[in-house]
Fold:
Amino acid sequence: MRVRVDGEVCEAEEGQTVAGVLLAAGRNSWRSTRRGGRPRGVFCGIGVCFDCLVVVNGVPDVRACQRRVEPDDEIRTQHGAELPS
Amino acid sequence: MSRTVVSSIVVIGAGPAGLAATRAAADTGADVTLIDAAPKLGGQYHRQDARTGDERFALPAGVQHLRESVVWAIEPIDGGHRAHVRTGPADSPDRTGTSIDAAALVLATGAYDRALPFPGWDLPGVFTAGAAQALAKGQGVAVGSRVLVAGTGPFLLPVASSLVGVGAEVVAILEANAAVRGWLSNPFGALAGAGKAGELAAYAATLVRHRIPYRARRAVIEAHGADRVEAVTTARLDADWSPLPGSEKTMEVDAVAVGFGFTPQLELAVSARCELRDGFVVVDAAQATSVPGVFAAGELTGIGGATLSAAEGAVAGAAAARHVGAEVRPPLQAMRRIRSGRRFAAALGEAYPVRPGWRTWLRDDTLVCRCEEVDYAALRGARNDRDATGSRSLKLVSRAGLGLCQGRVCGANVAELSGIDDPAAFAGRPMAVPLRLCELAGADPEATPEIEPGVKV
Ligand SMILES: Cc1cc2nc3c(=O)[nH]c(=O)nc-3n(C[C@H](O)[C@@H](O)[C@H](O)COP(=O)(O)OP(=O)(O)OC[C@H]3O[C@@H](n4cnc5c(N)ncnc54)[C@H](O)[C@@H]3O)c2cc1C
Ligand code: FES
Structure:
């Protein structure tokens, strides 16, 4: 299947999580923190820490390590606290 | 707002404990619903590759499996408890709500890694050991190409082995405690738990084959890099875990996997008002908690590995079935396995504790709470200048533990740094998992989740 990551087309497989796709593509951060603007990616890997937040199809605060990709998902970096678009 | 379903027994968590509980309860003919947040069965230990279509585990006929379903609250009702569930893609506002009324509940929600802070631990490229393991097993992806595995406990071995399996170079394993004599050379020794010996021997062989150095009394005390980990400083530790001056070494790596044992996933047990002791759920010989009709099994009741979790699950499942009136033969074999498993767990706990010297790894600007970006100086300030000493006031003044993870990651560390003698002081949460506001408001479609009947074994 295909998904888009920050506007670019990316190949993905059924059963991959958003984090799985991003890490396999060589990225290890996709969020900036609210206060310090620091980069974050996966930390706990199992849905506990909420460090891996990402925007999927306009919805922010989606845990990349928990969310399975679906065809044509629009995945993008989350900047601080975002409102749904 | 959401549909209500009735099931006599609800098991929450499909790891070794929950699977065994489901089987034991279903074997008595009781009607069982198994709920897990993951799409596939198995929990952490038996995590399956999520990219293949097949399911490795079969459930007894008649078991209802609610996959991709999180339980976010438990409430008492007449004759039992109601579990509130959201089913669907993780964190999607389109998940559907169900509540399930049960005469007996088995909580088997497992544990997550304890991570200790050090300067730079918030850089991308620092992962928990469990994250490295889950990504390798479940997604076939390595967290880095040159990875250092560090922390304490035997869990570091399977993590290193899985990393090698997905093509990473493991530069070393650092064990902060002293190596248990004969642990690697003789996995049949003092710490060999039931069924563990062969598994450990296989990991030891992997270390040798890939020439992965295993260093005791050493830890990562700093990670370096601008926007991602580029190198780490490691140091030799004294018996208390304070770094020995002059022992520092720098290693170039692009990822670090750190794990200092596990913290139980307590929120549902807290939501059900189960009694806790030393940060774990208190259970009797039948795995019954202090709340009638609520049973607990697995790492929730103590950290002891998959074999013990499964034995506890078998007993909890049988006890839950008896509670709902099924005829049950006493699970004597599982009870024996629990006794030997707990001896192993106690030995493990003594051999691989977290020692207080880790607090000296922190600097003023080291984050203690990753979510709210509270550093060590701010936490100390809240405690000393503003006299916030209880966990509640400390949270409110410093904001540590108030972020999205609700103190799961920082709770035990903040408690220890602030002299609060209760690792679960931060475990009380209004909701077990954060929901979206629209979900709480009930603005969701009334659709029913797909309940899949179990496959016959
Ligand atoms: C990331 C990670 C990886 C691990 N890998 C290994 C390993 O490879 N080898 C090893 O020996 N040990 C491993 N462990 C240790 C682990 O704790 C095992 O000992 C074992 O899996 C514990 O079994 P359990 O049944 O108690 O819980 P788990 O196996 O942890 O199962 C708990 C289950 O409960 C579900 N759950 C939790 N809360 C909710 C909720 N609110 N709603 C719905 N479902 C919920 C989770 O999705 C999970 O599937 C790992 C631990 C972690 C944290
Ligand atoms: S990495 Fe911790 S929630 Fe995703």
In short: Chain B touches chain A through 49 residues (CB under 8 Å).
